[in-house]
Amino acid sequence: MSPTKASDNTVNDDCQKNYMAPDDWCTSSYDSCTLPKHIQEVALIQLRENESVRKQAISAFRQWISKNMDVQNVNTDENFLLRFLRAKKFSLPMAQQMLLKYLNLRQKFPMYFMGLDCLIPAISELIDSGYMFVSPFRDSDGRRVIIGTAKGFDLRKYSNRDLGIVHIITYETLLNDEVNQVVGFTHFGDFHSITPAYITLFAPNEFATLIKWGEQSIPMRHKAIHLLNVPSPIKFAYDYFQTRISPKLNARMKVCNQ
Question: Using the 8-state DSSP alphabet, how is residue 149 labeled?
């Protein structure tokens, strides 16, 4: 990843929400923990999170942002910062690096992050078609289950930007829920309808960067990934995908073919 410049990380839209002047960041009040008791226990065991750790980490994170010239106008509310802290198990340096990578991802690929509106006709149609949706039921570990299919995605009608926006809207919406930040996510992807033509949606370098940077910068705890009905003609794309993600995520991925 290229070095970060101050001018590269000026963020607007949703990231600018609730911006506070530097003098107010460390003296602002903290929201009391709203997590259910059993989720607080999960957070303590898996993330080393308790009330004291959370308050200290948020305060230190805000101080770092106020003094860091590489970031400007960044959302500093607790929900947003906790996404990164929980994704990195309250390692402040790792959370800071993840935030920088997240901002770089937004700057590198603004077409997927700006204008996130589910009422845009193409986006609304894709969501209604069942291209990607979230189960109304959590799995046995309390995780939200994200389900993706190629159903309804017409290559002649929709673009890679439409695809990317649906993904980012889904992820950003789910991350607003602090329970999801703690317990993580389970993914199911049904590739039954996918053909080799789908690979042409992205240039090879763009696809590689999105996969690698996406894992490193979007603060989601991916706990299980199940890929169903992967056609033989696109298995090479899956093999390439595996080379771009971390060994940890690879170990959590399973392919199930009939």
Answer: E
Say if strands 132-134 and 144-149 run parallel, antiparallel, or are unpaired: antiparallel
pTM of the full structure: 0.85
Alpha-carbon distance values, 123 to 37, 47, 130, 165, 169 (Å): 37, 35, 11, 7, 10
pLDDT tens track for 69-85: 888 889 999 999 999 99
Give the other-Cβ count within 10 Å of 67's Cβ: 9
* pLDDT tens-digit series, residues 85-100: 999 999 999 999 999 9
Contact predicate 26/81, CB 8 Å:
no
Residue 127: half-sphere exposure toward Cβ, Cα within 13 Å: 16
Half-sphere exposure of 224 (CA within 13 A, CB side): 12
Structure tokens of 206? 């763009």
